[in-house]
Amino acid sequence: MKKRASIALAITFLMATAATAAENRCGWIVNPTPGNYWLDDKEGSWMIMAQGSDVEAKGAENMPDFSAGQFVRTNGYYGYACTCMSVDVDRAEKRITQIHSVKQLALAKCKGDKSLPKPNVD
């Protein structure tokens, strides 16, 4: 009986861990205007934060200054860059809920990826 309980507990733990495991998502990080960020990847657009909304991904304040690397300006100091992010997501809401890490990539990396849409800066 103890063995069954231990196995059941282990399975439950593994399922819970898998459900909250961070995903690696790569694509266009878009910041068209103040307070608006999203990631466009091969699966669609993932909201990070929106101006006027109290919903914001945890860890968003730790995102780097993308304009310090390869960055396309589309509106003053705002625009888009290529990035890979380790994140937790809410698939139903298409929202990034937690940002664990961010690595900015060369623009050519995203431009050359045929699975990515063109950056949506609207």
Question: What features would you describe in this structure?
Answer:
There is one protein chain. This protein is of the alpha+beta class. Helices cover 19% and strands 39% of the residues. The chain contains two helices and six strands. The protein has helices at residues 2-19, 107-111; strands at 23-31, 37-41, 44-49, 72-75, 78-90, 95-105. Strands 1, 2, 3, 4, 5 and 6 form a six-stranded antiparallel sheet that branches. Residues 1-21 form the signal peptide.
Gyration radius, to the nearest Å?
17 Å
What percentage of the residues does DSSP assign to strands (E)? 35-45%
Poorly predicted regions are 5-18
- Beta strands, count: 6
Number of helical regions: 2
Largest sheet: 6 strands, antiparallel
Order of helices and strands: HEEEEEEH
Number of domain units: 1
Shape: globular
Report the structural category.
alpha+beta
Here the CATH topology equals OB fold (Dihydrolipoamide Acetyltransferase, E2P)
What percent of residues adopt helix (DSSP H or I)?
A: 10-25%
Cα distance spanning the termini: 59 Å
